[in-house]
């Protein structure tokens, strides 16, 4: 099915461990985003990539790095996980142009850091 | 900085009732506004997208309106059903920030049979 695919769906990490969250879209969208969702905080933008080869910081980038591997894939890396990074992470994509079109979201990665 | 507020935070209604969810934003310079639905433990599903030049969008029993000048949007759900129970999120795409979305915290809707 066309859409945004995130892996893994669930993950438990120990403090200090590293991991990469994967995201791929097959809709030929040019822009991709990583958000985190926390109770009482809503969804907040971590990093985004407006086009292949570019990445920019969002609202809460500290502790994260990203890679836009190609047009389809946008990964999020936690180099040294902290309990404050326990959250649900969503990847999204959009086709931008003269008019902005709606977002498509992945189903999320539920990360727990102990 | 754009801020998005959704009222109420939670709403419980009997089946069949018509209801309105509210969303307000502080900066009227937006490209578009989007309403999403989120089921517990799931991702976000796009419901309606209203471009800045539009006043409303409709899909089935859902109708969303946009008043940029007052910084408000409403999502109207007609003849609510238990299957409508979910969290509804409003998000605006501010002008001049690419396509970055600013989200409200959502309204948790429960429709009782």
Radius of gyration of chain A: 13 Å
Q: How many strands of chain A? A: 11
The helix tally of chain A amounts to: 0
- Give the termini separation of chain B: 41 Å
Sequence stretches where pLDDT stays below 50 over 5 or more residues of chain B: none
Order of helices and strands of chain A: EEEEEEEEEEE
Quick one: overall form of chain A? globular
Please work out how many helical segments of chain B DSSP would assign. Answer: 0
* Structure class of chain B: mainly beta
What can be said about the biggest beta sheet of chain B?
A: 6 strands, mixed
| Strand-residue proportion of chain B | over 45%
Name the pair of protein chains with the most residues at their interface, and give those residue counts.
Answer: A-B, 28 and 24 residues
Q: List low-confidence stretches of chain A.
A: none
By oligomeric state, this entry counts as: heterodimer
Average pLDDT value of chain A?
Answer: 92
How far the N terminus sits from the C terminus of chain A, by CA atoms, comes to 34 Å
Principal-axis shape of chain B equals: globular
Helix content of chain A: under 10%
What proportion strand of chain A? over 45%
Topology:
The complex is a heterodimer of chains A (114) and B (113).
Chain A: E1 4-7, E2 10-13, E3 19-25, E4 31-38, E5 42-49, E6 56-57, E7 64-68, E8 74-78, E9 87-94, E10 104-105, E11 109-113
Parallel strand pairs in A: 2-11
Antiparallel strand pairs in A: 1-3, 3-8, 4-5, 4-9, 5-6, 7-8, 9-10, 9-11
Chain B: E1 4-7, E2 10-14, E3 19-25, E4 30-38, E5 44-51, E6 56-59, E7 62-67, E8 72-77, E9 86-94, E10 102-103, E11 107-112
Parallel strand pairs in B: 2-11
Antiparallel strand pairs in B: 1-3, 3-8, 4-5, 4-9, 6-7, 7-8, 9-10, 9-11
């Amino acid at each position: 099915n066309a859409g945004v695919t995130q892996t893994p769906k669930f993950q438990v990490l120990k403090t200090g461990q590293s991991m990469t969250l994967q995201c791929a879209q097959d809709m030929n969208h040019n822009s991709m985003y990583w958000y985190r969702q926390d109770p009482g905080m809503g969804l907040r933008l971590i990093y985004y990539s407006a086009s292949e080869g570019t990445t920019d910081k969002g609202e809460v980038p500290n502790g994260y790095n990203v890679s836009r591997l190609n047009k389809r894939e946008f990964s999020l890396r936690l180099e040294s996980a902290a309990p404050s990074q326990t959250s649900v992470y969503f990847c999204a994509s959009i086709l931008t142009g003269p008019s902005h079109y709606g977002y498509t979201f992945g189903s999320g990665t539920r990360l727990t850091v102990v | 900085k754009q801020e998005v507020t959704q009222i109420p935070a939670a709403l419980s209604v009997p089946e069949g009732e018509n209801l309105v969810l509210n969303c307000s934003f502080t900066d009227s310079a937006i490209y578009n506004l989007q309403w999403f639905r989120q089921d517990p433990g799931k991702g976000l599903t796009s419901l309606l997208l209203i471009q800045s030049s539009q006043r409303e969008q409709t899909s089935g029993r859902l109708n969303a309106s946009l008043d940029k000048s007052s910084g408000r949007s409403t999502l109207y759900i007609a003849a609510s059903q238990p299957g409508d129970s979910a969290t509804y999120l409003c998000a605006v795409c501010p002008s001049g920030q690419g396509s970055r979305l600013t989200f409200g915290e959502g309204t948790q809707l429960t429709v009782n049979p």
